[in-house]
Amino acid sequence: MSEKGKLLVISGPSGAGKSTVVFKAIEGRSDVCFSTSVTTRSPRPGEVDGREYFFIDFKRFHEMVENDELLEHAEYVTNCYGTPRAYVEQRLNEGMNVVLDIEVLGARQVRKKMPGAVLIFIAPPSLIELERRLRGRGTDTEEAILGRLTRARQEYQEANFYDYLIINDDVEKAAKQLGAIIEAEHCRFADWADWLRSN
Amino acid sequence: MSEKGKLLVISGPSGAGKSTVVFKAIEGRSDVCFSTSVTTRSPRPGEVDGREYFFIDFKRFHEMVENDELLEHAEYVTNCYGTPRAYVEQRLNEGMNVVLDIEVLGARQVRKKMPGAVLIFIAPPSLIELERRLRGRGTDTEEAILGRLTRARQEYQEANFYDYLIINDDVEKAAKQLGAIIEAEHCRFADWADWLRSN
How far is CA B127 from CA A23, A53, B12, B111, B157, in A? Predict the structure, then answer.
């Protein structure tokens, strides 16, 4: 009896602490990995094809979109990004839980293409706290901070199709909740119904 | 912000180790309790009304059925049993997670009346192992053992509406999975959608 991995889609506003929570939750676990995206942008010094990204040209990117080879994709002014379906499915079949850190729009595409995906939204304890964290980072202009807050409010309205919400008021607690979600999802009755009936 | 408890419906064949798993999982937790059933049978020496059971007469039982005051009920040849809705809802509103240890037929009734209930089936690693455990207990006749095995096979076919399956091949692991399910279910997006939107 082999067990497939779960596709874990993680979203949430910039400043919610998504990466910190995910890294804390998967610390010391060998059954969780991040997905590797395709991108049309050029590799930066030190970036390795197939590690940070799969670097591809626009022609190949659009071919992948046409052939439904991407679980989700986003096209920006200068570059395109996407999640390669074959890569993700291979890791899942190997039993790996695969993490996708993507925006709400991309998550909506994944939900349609992979009904078994688990959608998790990580939110800060409040928008006031989010603003405090964004200012504390000191990396954004005033305009960028206000833009991120508007974006967060918008995502809160759009995120109603997610399965889980983790409120990151304490990283340890949030990481524990993420770990519990992964464990619980591996007990989904539907995944074991055939096993049970043939038992 | 107060958080309601979850109604946890636990089923599984006799000999699967349900009680052991549940007791191990809730050890030291003050946020999980068992429900108290109503019954028409007489109290045994030492049993206290409202502790082991709420002891009621047939007239009151049938009134409760008529008035939809029971989340599920079963009528046997000599006695009737049921889960009182008001009692369960009161505990849930207090923030307690309430455990119901009931059969598959009862669970189907609960699913209809409490859509938010979490249905968990606990199974032994195999029917061969179940038979071994039942014989090991030495409490059942040969006929009873065969009856229990037939009943288990039947429940496996009927249980397809459960949310989770825990395979009890190791009590520690099974208890950990039950704990994870409780934790994960408290992160259900739907339960927090209003909070998020008003945040």
Answer: 40, 47, 12, 26, 13
Question: Does B165 sit within 8 Å of A196, measured CB to CB?
Answer: yes
The closest of A109, A52, A42 to A79, measured between CA atoms, is A42
CATH code of A27's domain? 3.40.50.300
A97 interaction partners in chain B (CB closer than 8 Å): none
pTM above 0.90, yes or no: yes
Residue in chain A closest to B127 (alpha carbons) equals A199
Q: Is residue A57 part of a domain?
A: yes
β-partners of residue B75 are: B80
Considering only CB atoms, which chain A residues are within 8 Å of B160?
A: 189, 193
Residue B182 sits at the vertex; the CA angle it makes with A159 and B120, to the nearest 5 degrees, is 105
Its ipTM equals 0.92
Q: How many domains does chain A have?
A: 1
Tens place of pLDDT per residue across chain A (199 aa): 458 999 999 999 988 999 999 999 999 999 999 999 999 999 999 999 999 999 999 999 999 999 999 999 999 889 999 999 999 999 999 999 999 999 999 999 999 999 999 999 999 999 999 999 999 988 889 999 999 999 999 999 999 999 999 999 999 999 999 999 999 999 999 999 888 888 7
The answer to the question of residue A149 being in a domain is yes
| Structural domain boundaries, residue B56 | 7-190
Chain A residues in contact with chain B using a Cβ-Cβ cutoff of 8 Å: 119, 121, 123, 126-127, 156-157, 159-160, 162-167, 176-177, 179-181, 183-185, 187-189, 191-193, 196-197, 199
